[in-house]
Write a structure and sequence with these properties.
alpha/beta, 6-stranded mixed β-sheet, flat
């Protein structure tokens, strides 16, 4: 599918390529194309969502970089031996496959683990390359025993030559130009003064440019130099043998390596998409076949986060064409580009920067005529340039196409431009295409109102400050506000008044009514946001209370089960002791008096001990004295048995025996049977709730700083903080550990991964502390 250049889809691919870790991944990212089939688009979206989930649960990045090995595979197929650098690149693919193969056991996905199962690697080859090749131009001594022997011999000969030459420099320095040892043609020489050529026996290899120095290989080291050259030849032959052996180890895996590169490239792109999604705070897309577009607070991904204004677009209930009006520089073109770019990205498997799930159709073609007059770099007039793009869309757009038209009808006579624009819209809409068009032509607003499937929308304009807010308002036609903007820029008042006189009275009244409608809509939107915020707060409080009740019920169940188990254990123990006493009593008849007395005393002591145990358990059971419904009154202090915590009665028991209570910040409703009353707990209620069980949220910070602590000390402090945060009802906290050596970060994250209060965690975003912080969501 061809994507219009004006949507800047290529820039999104460049962002993706930057996230890829491998060369093949970056290359394939730049060639990514949207899928026009809804099943394929959904599958791409599912894989990206799965990658994001896996990325969230992994402490380390799931894939690693590797290089393309197309040339290496061809050389192996031809039977050639690979160089050290080529073997390192092949080994890099296997190392990347081994690293990613761990995903096969990941429980957070299905598609990606299945892909990981298809990865191949050979541990023996990886180990052999790692111990044999140090760099592209360096083979390790341990690559073979023969190579190690040869290099020892070379070092020995080098030492011999240096000793000889050092002695010569010491004893014959007057013949030398400098007291140094150098090499010419790979052989050791010394710089001899030309006038002393006859005083130093040896072979002259080179003369200096000035002619004052001769580089002479002394006769005493000629044989040693010859031996070094022979050893170097043997070294090269042995290195070639090592490389040939390594090539032979991997040559049989050409097909497996080719498959590895394909799988690893796809995994690299998937996790690059997931990483980009986390950076953009993006959400998944739900594709539909009902021509529904729902984007809530979508943010253009190419505009800086501190400058972008979220846009909400809703096209449903049969609305397939949107006419957007409003002032210049008000955001119409950006909105047009946002919708087109979102569609292209979604069909390529990208998550989108928006609030909540985005709903989009799947298009088989996206057509756009977007561009400022100043950016048209051709000899055509503005109108002709626009029409060229429009004609292409008219000829090729069908019932699964999206057409985006910017400033429709502009650049020519307004009356003709309006008529032509209406005809184009009617034609495209009749062919089943979805449309979004921006315009300043007033007749198109009326056209949208009069035709089924069309809807007006406008870019919000602040009449008080005479500035655009860049927000799209659905269902309301906008005004260009040319007179108001001109007035704010300093156009004389008499010209403004004259212009108003030239306008038809109906147009003036129409603009006034739109202005009133905009003010009323803004007021209603403000009240709606306030109501929604209050509703969300109420829902959160209710959810916290319900979670507390569930935990309390579970705790009560465990306490009862433990008490029953203990009671059974005590009864069984007492029964065994009684049986033993009976057996002893039977034997007493045959024993002497003194022994009978002693054994009787032992039995009494045993039974007395069992009695004390039973009494102690009964006392513990009676600690929580049961309450009758008639005893409970408003304002009483009672004990919630399951939570072992005091609470205040808000309302006495109803007909179903349920009591409304308040425990700290929580309000709940419990049956009478789960309540008790003890004087001791009632006296301690105020202190208990203020310091232990239900801490006020205002006293608990939303972050904890563990800088400078050991892992052991940090985890102890972290446990206490998480308990307090959990009891206070916080849903998300920030754990600051810094980056440092990484030891504290790894220790803290490993501890959080298995903590009972932690629902999930993630690395902090750029503005949340980055790698130096971990964002924790509590259960």
């Amino acid at each position: 599918m061809k994507i219009p250049v004006s949507l800047e889809y290529k820039k999104i691919l460049e962002l993706l390529a930057q996230k890829a870790l491998s060369g093949p991944g970056a290359q394939q990212a730049m060639n990514l194309q949207p899928q026009g089939d809804i099943k394929e688009a959904r599958f791409l979206m599912e894989k990206t969502m799965e990658a994001e989930t896996i990325l969230l649960h992994h402490a380390s990045y799931p894939v690693r970089g590797f290089s393309a090995i197309n040339a290496e595979l061809k050389r192996m197929k031809a039977g050639a031996s690979l160089s050290a650098g080529e073997l390192l690149r092949v080994c890099g693919v296997m190392r990347a496959a081994k690293h990613a193969a761990a995903l096969a056991k990941d429980e957070n996905g299905q598609v990606i683990p299945a892909m990981a199962q298809g990865l191949f690697f050979d541990d023996a080859f990886i180990h052999r390359v790692e111990e044999s090749i140090i760099a592209e131009d360096e083979i390790a001594d341990g690559a073979s025993s023969e190579l190690a022997r040869i290099r020892r011999a070379i070092r020995k000969e080098n030492e011999f030559i240096r000793e000889k030459l050092q002695g010569m420099i010491k004893n014959s320095s007057k013949y030398l130009q400098d007291a140094i040892i150098t090499q010419r043609g790979g052989r050791y020489v010394v710089p001899v003064k030309t006038e002393h050529k006859g005083d130093v026996a040896g072979i002259v290899h080179e003369k200096s440019a000035s002619g004052a120095t001769l580089f002479v290989e002394p006769a005493s080291v000629v044989e040693a130099n010859n031996r070094i050259r022979e050893l170097e030849g043997a070294e090269a032959a042995e290195i070639a043998a090592v490389l040939q052996a390594l090539t032979a180890m991997v040559s049989g895996y050409r097909e497996e390596l080719k498959a590895d590169v394909e799988l690893l490239t796809e995994l690299d792109i998937l996790f690059a998409k997931a990483s980009l999604a986390r950076e953009m705070k993006a959400v998944p897309v739900e594709f539909n076949e009902d021509n529904i577009i729902e984007i809530k607070e979508g943010r253009h991904p190419l505009i800086e986060a501190d400058r972008v204004v979220p846009v909400t677009v809703n096209m449903h209930d049969g609305i397939t064409a949107l006419i957007v009006t409003g002032p210049n520089t008000g955001g119409k073109t950006v909105t047009l580009k946002l919708v087109g770019l979102f569609c292209a990205m979604a069909q390529s498997g990208f998550l989108l920067p928006a609030l909540g799930t985005v709903k989009l159709p799947v298009f088989d073609g996206i057509f756009a005529d977007i561009g400022d007059e100043q950016s048209i770099e051709q000899s055509l007039s503005t109108f002709s340039a626009h029409m060229k793009s429009i004609i292409y869309a008219v000829k090729h757009a069908g019932n699964r196409s999206l057409v985006l038209l910017d400033e429709l009808g502009a650049g020519t006579d307004p009356q003709e431009g309006s008529a032509l624009a209406q005809a184009v819209l009617a034609h495209l809409h009749g062919n089943g295409a979805m449309l979004i068009a921006t315009t300043h032509i007033g007749e198109l607003k009326a056209f949208a109102t009069a035709h089924d499937g069309f809807e007006n929308a406008s870019m919000e304009f602040n009449a008080a400050t005479l500035t655009p807010t860049y927000r799209l308002i659905m269902g309301v036609a906008g005004r260009s506000n040319a007179l108001a903007i001109s007035k704010s820029l300093g156009l004389p008042a008499e010209i403004i008044q004259a212009a108003q006189g030239y306008m038809q009275s109906e147009t003036v009244e129409y603009n006034r009514l739109i202005e009133v409608a905009e003010k009323e809509r803004a007021k209603a939107a403000k009240n709606l946001r306030k109501s929604n915020d209050m509703l969300q707060d109420a829902r959160r409080e209710r959810e916290r209370a319900e979670r507390a009740l569930e935990k309390a019920a579970e705790k009560r169940k465990k306490i009862l089960e433990k008490a029953n188990e203990k009671a059974i254990e005590i009864i069984d123990d007492a029964r065994d002791a009684t049986e033993e006493a009976i057996e002893i009593a039977k034997k007493l008849k045959t024993k002497p008096e003194a022994q009978r007395t002693q054994m009787t005393q032992q039995v009494r002591q045993t039974l007395a001990g069992k009695k004390q145990t039973i009494e102690k358990h009964k006392k513990l059971q009676k600690r929580h004295q049961a309450l009758e419904a008639s005893e409970i009154r408003e304002g009483d202090t009672v004990l919630i048995i399951s939570m072992d915590a005091p609470a205040t009665v808000l309302e006495p028991p109803n007909a179903k025996g349920m009591v409304k209570l308040q425990a700290g910040i929580l309000k709940m409703e419990l049956p009478v049977g789960e309540l008790a009353k003890t004087e001791q707990e009632a006296q301690q209620q105020k202190q208990y709730f203020s310091s232990v069980n239900l801490k006020s949220r205002s006293n608990i910070s939303a972050s904890i700083d563990l800088h400078g602590q050991t892992v052991d000390d940090a985890t102890v402090e972290l446990d206490k903080y998480l308990d307090d945060a959990f009891l206070s009802g916080l849903q998300q906290v920030t754990v600051i550990h810094g980056r440092g050596t990484g030891a504290l970060m790894k220790g803290v994250r490993a501890h959080l991964r298995n903590h009972p209060h932690v629902k999930k965690m993630r690395q902090g975003e750029y503005d949340e502390g980055g790698p130096g912080a971990t964002i924790v969501e509590l259960k």
